[in-house]
Amino acid sequence: MNLSFYVHIPYCVKRCGYCDFNTYTPSELQISDGLAQISNSYIDLAIQEIEQARLQVGEATVPTIFFGGGTPSLMEAADIARVITKIKNSFLLSDDCEITLETNPDTVDKQKLAAFKDAGINRISVGMQSAVAHVLKTLDRTHNPQNLQQVTQWASEVGFKDISVDLIYGTPGESLADWQLSIDAALALPINHISAYALIVEEGTKLANGIKRGEIGNIDDDLTAEKYLMADRAFSKAGFIWYELSNWSKAGGESRHNSAYWLNHNWWGVGPGAHSHIDGKRWWNVKHPNLYKTKILNNESPVLDQEILEPIQVESERLMLSIRLPSGVPKDSLSTEQLKILQPYVDSGALDLKNWGAGSVSLSLSGRLIADRIVREILL
């Protein structure tokens, strides 16, 4: 069995205004000495959960490991190495195992990047979001946009061949010119992968509250759609190939870890709030780091709840995930009624006519803008 690992690092120096991820700041956890004291002790807990995974799963091959957050680059490289070593000693790492670390550009220098490389990290994903200061301010991001060029250059110099950046488009107040500037800045970096996500305003975040109070403008959906088209044109021209609704890469630069999610493969999520999926069973851990710590130290499972996916859930997720990929959904896996519902989208050009004729339901460029609508209509 193949089993990917997601290792959640639930700590940040500061919470961004748009973020609703399961992450915590020192002040929220009432930690006076900052994050330095957390790295070693938290990794001890993660290692114990990996031991639980070994006892539950038995033998497995690990094709990918992903350190996400939060801000994994706040951790000490030696502690990241301990996690990788534990997984390697507990399971079989594939020869080409992809090991990714999400990175805030303000938290690393060349020496620390080299240390992460020596620890076993072979792919870096840098949180860029925007190259425009006022957009970052609206998002309440803390990093200096000028650091991206330096950090990605350092990453390249210390030997990282797979370097990705994350962008967010659609922020209130972001003009088309602002977005073009961010696109151009990203494409000027030594990278082989770009993720670009439309901003989603999550209830309860600082950003959502600012919009409610009228301090920040609303999202313009038409402008957001135009920004997606701008991005795809620019990325494609620069040699980046679209391989998932919000992801583009140069040849061979695809994120194999994220692809495992989209293809509904097996993965184990380590850490507070992390989700796991093995053979149609899904579970998720308790969210708060303190409760997670208590569970692990008591040699208990940190699982909060679980579910066995019903056939209708499996089918719905297959459709929702597959439609995001260029390969799309095989027509012969759909009912006559579903194909009838889809025919108008073929006629309008939202679905690729050539692929339809070849037996696949796949999105055209314009169809990517309404992917959710298309899926909703065939979820019978």
Outline the structure in words.
There is one protein chain. With 380 residues, this protein is an alpha/beta fold. The chain contains 15 helices and 14 strands. The strands form three sheets. It has a nine-stranded mixed β-sheet with strand order 7-8-6-5-4-3-2-1-9, sandwiched between helices. The protein starts with a strand and ends with a helix. The model has no long low-confidence stretch (mean pLDDT 92).
In short:
The chain is α/β, with parallel strands linked by helices. 42% of the residues lie in helices and 21% in strands.
List the topology elements.
Blueprint: E1 4-9, H1 36-57, E2 61-69, H2 77-90, E3 92-103, H3 110-119, E4 123-129, H4 133-139, H5 147-157, E5 162-169, H6 176-187, E6 193-198, H7 206-212, H8 221-237, E7 241-244, E8 247-249, H9 256-262, E9 267-270, E10 275-278, E11 281-285, H10 289-297, E12 303-308, H11 311-322, E13 329-330, H12 336-348, H13 353-357, E14 360-361, H14 365-368, H15 371-378
Parallel strand pairs: 1-2, 1-9, 2-3, 3-4, 4-5, 5-6
Antiparallel strand pairs: 6-8, 7-8, 10-11, 11-12, 13-14
Helix pairs in contact: 1-2, 1-10, 2-3, 6-8
The main β sheet shows up as: 9 strands, mixed
Using the CA coordinates, give the radius of gyration. 21 Å
**Shape summary:** globular
Strand order of the largest sheet: 7-8-6-5-4-3-2-1-9
The number of distinct β-strands equals 14
Q: Please report the distance between the alpha carbons of the first and last residues.
A: 32 Å
Give the amount of beta strand, in percent: 15-25%
What is the overall pLDDT average? 92
Provide the CATH topology of the largest domain.
TIM Barrel
Number of domains: 2
Helix content: 40-55%
Kindly report the name of the CATH homologous superfamily of the largest domain.
Aldolase class I
